[in-house]
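Weekly modeling sync, notes
Attendees: S.R. (lead), two postdocs, one rotation student

Agenda item 3: backlog of single-chain predictions. S.R. asked that every request posted to the team notebook include the full sequence so nobody has to chase files. The rotation student volunteered to paste the first one in as an example of the format we agreed on. Action items at the bottom.

Example entry:
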Amino acid sequence: MTRPAVFTQADIAKLLKGAKAAGMTVASVEIDRSGKIVARFGGAGAAASAETNEWDEVLGDGQGQRTAA
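Predicted structure, as returned to the notebook:
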């Protein structure tokens, strides 16, 4: 005898559709055996913050500041 589905494809579709409507990008979706669905969000805002370094403001962009050893 098969076990009833803990989640359906429609559940995931609703999650993705809702995220898109909110302007968010889903980076990953995890589903455990109990049916708990965890979505991780990312996108332009997350990528930009990952590429930014707080020291860039202190040291400048580094162009033209290198000296020969």
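Discussion: group reviewed the output briefly. Residues 25-51 form one domain.
Action items: rotation student to repeat for the remaining queue; S.R. to check formatting next week.
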